[in-house]
Specification:
With 504 residues, the chain is of the alpha/beta class. Helices cover 35% and strands 20% of the residues. Helix 1 packs across helix 7. It is globular and about 85 Å long. About 1% of the residues have low confidence.
Length: 504
């Protein structure tokens, strides 16, 4: 049987070419019109849980009036009246997609395509409650820079350092606190390598660039949002966490069954391995979530408008990107990132925010030669300094590149960590991932002093991760030995120490 598909393009302006990559993508997105005369398509996907879905949609209708938007309501095989609710929604610019049977959460993206979308898409799951100015704030960020492709608000009940707790006791109180919180502030726009995506805004041209469906079917398990963020960045766009915008994620883990937990853990394991396979050994957690908030507490603004930041072996680059984000709070919006890595697998992702000319790869001995005509205000050595064969030599090389008044941040792996010792003697785990030189904090500091270098102790990490049994064991041992020194306890129970070296 012959089928003919006709498309009415009478009201669409012809495509205009451009020599600029981003403008060309924007022009292409402009001719892909969904016919709704709107700036944003808000997509809500529901599968049962109709009461949550109602709350979600009602919040959108209540708090999105300051944006020209349309609604795309997707019933993914619900059996509880979700479809009837969608039909009852009183909103002029709405469309409904109904899927008879739920076969997967990704199937709806196979049914519709980018022609259903406006210039922007906001994906909202049915366990979200949006808040005043949520979408207008996100849209303001996206339109501030043609290279911003994805914007994600902070929320409750989320990982990846994206959670903000507003401490409310009712829906009314939540809405009032969110209204006070949601004040647009460019200082709070954080560039990220990885985002947990829910309620995000994405440019249509970014969707074109990464391909459709926007979810890689290999990530039907967890880490689909990690993958999407990576693809958006590697297509030349920035991924932004909007710390000036909060929405409520009403996700309840407390009522999960043991089978649900087991299924979730398996999904995480499979998804994490799929991610490593796709990105040639890069781990979405260890290589990307390597936040070092300890350094941010010791960060001193230089007083200049333009700052340079160098990351040495910072994996995909999170530690230096976090410094750049923190400097925004001081009004420094154009901090320039550079990176040096000994592992080539990190090269591309470092380039996504440092730039093609600011990233070098090689042996640590070539560090100074790579940047011999550049000085830096901040330098971060991402790996523990005693994992290098010549730790003092690495520090001295870094100091050659540090500007006067600058700061060098280093960490020391605690080779006397009690937990690592217990793991070794009781075979509780694999122990340290690699050999490190044995240093106590005092030995490290004194060796630097001998070289005329003053390292200031910031803090240590690991104590809070110890179980009470391990802490009690350590305290009992110290009591029997007549030791009450707090530093000694830190030496036993902390696995990593952090220092800053100021170049006067």
């Amino acid at each position: 049987m012959q089928q003919i598909y006709e498309f009415d393009t009478s009201n669409i302006n012809p495509l205009t070419t451009s020599d600029d990559l981003y403008q060309g993508r924007s022009n292409m997105a402009a001719i892909s019109d969904n016919g709704m005369d709107s700036d944003v398509t808000v997509c809500v996907q529901g599968y049962n849980r109709v009461e949550k879905t109602k709350q979600c949609v009602e919040s959108i209708l209540k708090y999105t009036g300051d944006v020209n938007y349309d609604l795309l309501l997707i019933d993914n095989g619900s059996t509880d009246g979700t479809f009837d609710f969608f039909k009852s929604v009183d909103f002029k610019k709405k469309r409904i997609i109904r899927i008879d049977k739920n076969v997967s959460s990704i199937y709806p993206a196979l049914v519709y395509n980018t022609s259903f979308l406006s210039r922007y898409m906001a994906g909202v799951s049915n366990d979200l409650v949006v808040t005043p100015h949520w979408l207008s704030n996100l849209l303001r960020i996206a339109e501030s820079d043609e290279k911003i492709g994805l914007v994600q608000p902070v929320s409750s009940n989320v990982s990846n350092s994206q959670q903000v707790n507003l401490n409310f006791n009712s829906l009314v109180e939540m809405e009032e606190k969110a209204k006070d919180y949601n004040v647009s502030n460019p200082a709070k726009w954080e560039q990220r390598l990885r985002l947990v995506i829910n309620g995000c805004l994405i440019k249509k041209e970014a969707l074109f660039a990464i391909g459709w469906p926007f979810m890689d079917v290999g990530f039907y398990h967890d880490f689909a949002d990690d993958d999407m963020t990576f693809r958006v960045r590697r297509a030349g766009y920035k991924a932004i966490l909007a710390r000036d915008t909060w929405i409520c994620h009403d996700h309840d883990h407390t009522h999960m069954s043991s089978s649900d937990i087991e299924k979730g853990n398996r999904s995480i394991k499979i998804g994490r391995e799929n991610f490593r396979n796709k990105y040639f050994g890069i781990d979405a957690w260890d290589d990307v979530n390597c936040f070092i908030p300890e350094y941010l507490s010791a960060l001193k603004p230089t007083g200049t408008e333009h700052n340079r930041i160098l990351g040495i072996d910072v994996r995909c680059g999170t530690p230096i990107l976090e410094i750049k984000n923190r400097l925004r709070y001081s009004g420094i919006y154009d901090a320039e990132c550079h990176a040096f890595t000994q592992q080539a697998k990190y090269f591309l992702d470092l380039q996504t925010f440092c730039g093609a000319d600011n990233v070098f790869s090689g042996d640590i001995g070539s560090l100074v030669n790579c940047f011999d005509d550049v000085s830096f205000d901040y330098i971060v050595i991402g790996e523990d300094i005693n994992s290098y064969k010549n730790p003092i030599g690495v520090i001295k090389s870094a100091l050659k590149l540090l500007a006067h008044g600058g700061q060098l941040f280093v960490s020391l792996s605690n080779s006397y960590d009690l937990l690592a010792f217990l793991k070794e003697i009781r075979k509780l785990g694999s122990g340290p991932s690699k050999h490190v030189l044995s240093y106590t904090m005092d030995e490290f500091v004194n060796e630097l002093k001998y070289e005329g270098i003053n390292a200031k102790y910031i803090t240590s990490r690991g104590y809070e991760q110890m179980s009470q049994d391990v802490i009690q064991f350590a305290q009992n041992c110290m009591n029997k030995l007549g030791i009450s020194d707090e530093q000694a306890l830190i030496g036993l129970l902390c696995d990593r120490h952090f220092f800053v070296i100021d170049k006067e």
